[in-house]
């Protein structure tokens, strides 16, 4: 993991200012220009393109740094895909939550097929904060049954895992999509798949923080705790 000196080297603004703009953009329905204007009101002239670069760099970094502190999710997976516009075309954001609404994982994909489903489940199952699924609830996407069969044959998924294709049981993940789409919709689409992926990682990280999925010492606010993760002193 990069040190604070390397992460913020050659930056013209303090680390706390950079993390503040990333947090505002990733947590609220704001454009890059909105965040730039809000910083200007505080006496800081930061271009919206600079803030965009910070979001692309530090959103994934925040996601990486909070993952060791995520609380364990339960073994009932609720899985669904939602749509994200990239360069005028729809891409697929695979997302899973447990039966209590805690985020299990997410993955942006060019395609909605068997291989994409397998990649997503391998990613989710391998995350240390996730249990192996006892039951997986999905929609009627025809790619799921063969994907699960292949994962079971490859011993990535237990053959005892119950797979249910029952749409109404997935209301909890469909509701959870709304918090992500509330942030991404004002963007009017992304310019590239790579930047979409990086931006969504930051949005998902702050969404998990909002849902209190992270073990944060009770004496610290989550903002103070994020600063500690980056080695910033109060």
Can you tell me about this structure?
- Residues 64-234 form the Integrase catalytic domain.
- Keywords: DNA recombination, DNA-binding, Transposition.
- GO terms for molecular function: DNA binding.
- This is Transposase.
- A hairpin with a 4-residue loop joins strand 2 (89-98) and strand 3 (103-109).
- The radius of gyration is 19 Å and the shape is globular.
- It folds into 2 domains: 4-68 and 214-230; 72-190, 2-Layer Sandwich (Nucleotidyltransferase, domain 5), CATH 3.30.420.10.
- It has 9 helices and 5 strands.
- Helix 2 (15-27) crosses helix 8 (193-210), helix 4 crosses helix 8 (193-210) and helix 5 packs across helix 6 (144-153).
- The mean pLDDT is 92.
- The chain has a 5-stranded mixed β-sheet with strand order 3-2-1-4-5, sandwiched between helices.
- By secondary structure, it is α/β, with parallel strands linked by helices.
Number of strands: 5
Helical content stands at 40-55%
Query: Given the C-alpha coordinates, what overall shape results?
Result: globular
End-to-end C-alpha gap: 22 Å
Question: Do you know the CATH architecture of the largest domain?
Answer: 2-Layer Sandwich
The CATH fourth-level homologous superfamily of the largest domain: Ribonuclease H-like superfamily/Ribonuclease H
Please tally the helical runs, counting DSSP H or I stretches of 4 or more residues. 9
Looking at this protein, list some descriptive labels:
234 residues, alpha/beta, Nucleotidyltransferase, domain 5, 2 domains, five-stranded mixed β-sheet, 5 strands, 46% helix, transposition, DNA-binding
């Amino acid at each position: 993991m990069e040190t604070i000196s390397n992460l913020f080297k050659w930056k013209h603004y303090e680390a706390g200012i950079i993390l503040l703009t990333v947090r505002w953009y990733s947590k609220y329905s704001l454009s890059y220009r909105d965040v730039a204007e809000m910083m200007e009101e505080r006496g800081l002239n930061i271009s919206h393109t600079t803030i965009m670069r910070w979001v692309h760099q530090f959103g994934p970094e925040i996601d990486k740094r909070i993952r060791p502190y995520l609380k364990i999710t339960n073994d009932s997976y609720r899985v669904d895909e939602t749509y994200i516009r990239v360069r005028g075309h729809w891409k697929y954001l695979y997302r899973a939550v447990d039966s209590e609404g805690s985020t299990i994982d997410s993955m942006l994909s060019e395609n909605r097929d068997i291989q994409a489903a397998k990649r997503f489940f391998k990613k989710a199952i391998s995350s240390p904060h996730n249990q192996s699924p006892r039951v997986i609830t999905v929609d009627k996407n025809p790619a799921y049954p063969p994907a699960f069969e292949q994962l079971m044959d490859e011993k990535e998924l237990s053959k005892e895992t119950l797979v249910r294709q029952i749409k109404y049981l997935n209301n909890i993940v469909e509701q959870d999509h709304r918090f992500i789409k509330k942030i991404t919709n004002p963007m009017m689409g992304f310019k590239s798949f790579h930047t979409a992926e990086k931006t969504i990682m930051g949005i998902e990280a702050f969404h998990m923080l909002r849902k209190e999925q992270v073990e944060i010492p009770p004496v610290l606010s989550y903002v103070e705790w994020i600063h500690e993760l980056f080695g910033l002193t109060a």
